[in-house]
Structures are given as structure tokens and as C-alpha cells.
Amino acid sequence: MLAAHIAGLGGYVPPRAVHNKELEKILDTTDEWIQQRTGIVTRHWAAPDVGTSDLALEAAQRAIVDAGIALTEIDMIIMASSTPDHDIPGGGCFLQAKLGLPGVPYFEVKQACSGFVYGLSLADQFIKTGHKKCILLVGVEIQSKLLDMTPRGRAVSVIFADGAGAAIIKATEVKDKAKDSYIHSTVLHADGSFAKELWIPAPGTALGAARIIPKMEEDGLVYLHMNARHVFSHAVTKMPEVMKEACALANTGLEQIDLFFFHQANLRISDHVAESLGLKPERMHNTIQKYGNTTAATIPLGMWDALKEGKLKRGQLIGISAFGAGFTWAAAVFRY
Ligand code: UT7
């Protein structure tokens, strides 16, 4: 059976670690509030001269080494990001140029926190149908440059952060379905009626005659807005629901999954998800404490982190589940 499998992983966070204490000075917040309400202690912020594709490049290079492939084997790039280098063209194009892969097509996946899982599903379909053999998938964000760094934005700005995680998804011939490494299932959902619960309103074409005017910045429309409690309540419902769906589609039970990676939005959300699935804490890998919420990057960054710690190992059955802007939610089951 022709299938897709994760052949390599890479991750990268920019060197500058920002502790909650540093935010106390600008956001009318406290280290204690942030830790209690989100679990976050530090996050990383990119330097002014660094763009999203620079972080993606670092993670991609590590994933290429981990997979042991030649750069020229990559025949497609999928970049999951809501924060590309520029509005047009998509960030995947800058990554493609930096990697030096002229002619290789790229896709832009803009499903925010669910972006990596959406991208994994896309890669899976291209490989299973025989159209592509080796796809670079990157989840990457620079959120720090989109945040309202005044007390007005404190509920949102303490959470989001910068980082990248990459995976090399390769074609494989599965001989033993119970043991071989391959993607068993992916499940994708969206509900656009909640689009304005977590969004950046401006600039945009639905705002009148002008796409961008200075007042949009004054009014804070260029920053990320979140109906926090609403997002929280949907996240704790949809992430376990879709994880169960992905297990059912993979013909596997939750108990057979060795390790879970949930989108890292808030440690309390991950704890709720684990509780509703009946999981002991050691069966999931959380990284929000040190990386914050890196949107599309949290899951691949978490997998890379677990790999470095020796927690993620070849042969394990893995469950991943995400929820975010859109609203979108998605999950996958694969043997690593
Ligand atoms: O990744 C995409 C999906 N995103 C998420 O899933 C995030 C979901 N939401 C959350 O994680 C949480 O709702 C937050 C961490 C954003 C907020 O936590 P909360 O417990 O829901 O707080 P809240 O918004 O209900 O605010 C509680 C209080 C308010 O004060 P009053 O009205 O009770 O006096 C806020 O003004 O906490 C205050 N507050 C803060 N205080 C100190 C809000 N943000 C802060 C802050 N520092 N940064």
C-alpha cells in the first residue's frame, strides 16, 4: 500500500527568550497571572530583521538532516502560517527561494493553529495519489510583530509567540499496517460563522473603499483580537472530539496511542482536553511553558522537542489535534 510517513522533524525558535517578568514592564500584567491562567513562563521573539521564512528555513534545514534526504528530493513545499513575510506572495515562496529549490511548487495553508494538521492532510493526499514523493511541511509564525504591546492587548499578547516546526513527509510502501511508519488518518473541520471570534480585522478588502488607513492602527484593528472565553470553550470541546474522530477513522482506540500532541494555546486547555479523553499527563507533551502559543508551529515544534528529549521514538503511534481561528479544528493519527 502506498502511503505517506514522517521521515524527519526539525524545529527552531529565535534566540531571544522573553520571560513573563519582561512583559510586566509593558503590559499591565504579572508573572503570577500569566503562569496561573496560561502556564506560560517564557516565549521567544524574533529579531527585527528576521522574517517568518527565516525561521522556517532553520526548521526545514534541521528536518532535512533528520530525514537524511538530499535537498533536491523535495518536490513540494507546504507552509502553514498566518504571519507570512509579506501579504503577497505567500511565505512559502520566500522559503523556496532561500532553500534554493526553483521550480518546486508551494502551497500556503492559512488555517492558523490548525494549519500544520491541515498541511499534513494535504501532503498525505498528494503522496497517496502518487503525485508527489517528498514534501516539506512547515508550521511557522512570527506573532510578536502582530501583537498589541500596550495594556489594551494584554489578554492576547502574553500568549502568542514565534517559532517554527518542520516535517519531511515521504512516500512509503506499507507492508505491515500494524508496525510500519505511516499516516493512518487525518480529519479536518471548519466553521466560518465564528471567524470574527479570533481575527485581525485590518487591513482588508471588506472594510470600505480603502484597504488600509492610519485610523485602523489607532483603533487597534491591525492587531489580533480574541473573544478569549468563547475560544477557550470551543477549544476544549472540539480538540477531544476531533481526536476521537481521527482514532475511529484509523481503526484504533485512544488507549493504543503512545503520545499525544495537542495544539499549545493554554496549559489549562491541554489539561481539559486530556481530562475529557481520560489521559494521564505523561501521555501528552506540552511545550507552552517555554515556547508560548506559536499557532501553526506548536505541534511540529512540540514533536521536535519530544524527539530531542527522547520521548518521541520511532514505532510509536501518535495522535495530534488542533483548534484555532476560523474556527478550524483538525486531528491526525500516524505511526512515527
Ligand atoms: O491558539 C488559538 C486559540 N486560542 C486559545 O485557545 C486561547 C483561549 N483563551 C485563553 O487561553 C484564555 O481565555 C486567556 C488566557 C486568553 C484569558 O484567560 P481567562 O481566564 O479566560 O481570563 P479573562 O479573559 O476571563 O479575564 C479575567 C481577568 C479580567 O479581569 P477582571 O475583569 O476579572 O477584573 C481581565 O481583565 O483577568 C484580566 N486579564 C489579565 N490580568 C493580568 C486579562 N489578561 C490579563 C493579563 N494580565 N495578561
Account of the 3D structure:
There is one protein chain. This protein is an alpha/beta fold and 336 residues long. The chain folds into two domains: 2-173, Thiolase/Chalcone synthase (Peroxisomal Thiolase, Chain A, domain 1, 3-Layer(aba) Sandwich); 183-335, 3-Layer(aba) Sandwich (Peroxisomal Thiolase, Chain A, domain 1), CATH 3.40.47.10. The protein contains eleven helices and 13 strands. The protein has helices at residues 20-27, 31-38, 52-67, 91-99, 115-128, 154-157, 214-218, 228-249, 267-277, 288-291, 298-309; strands spanning 2-12, 16-19, 42-45, 76-80, 106-109, 134-142, 162-173, 183-190, 198-199, 225-226, 259-262, 317-324, 328-335. The strands form four sheets. It has a five-stranded mixed beta sheet, with helices on both faces. A four-stranded mixed beta sheet has the order 8-13-12-11, with helices on both faces. It has a two-stranded antiparallel sheet with strand order 2-3. The chain is globular. The structure holds oxa(dethia)-CoA. Residues 29, 33, 37-38, 113, 154-155, 158-159, 228-229, 231-232, 235, 265-266, 269, 293, 324 line the site of oxa(dethia)-CoA.
CATH H-level superfamily title of the largest domain? Thiolase/Chalcone synthase
Instruction: Indicate the CATH class of the largest domain.
Output: Alpha Beta
The largest sheet is:
5 strands, mixed
Number of DSSP helical runs: 11
Number of strands: 13
Which molecules are bound besides the chains? oxa(dethia)-CoA
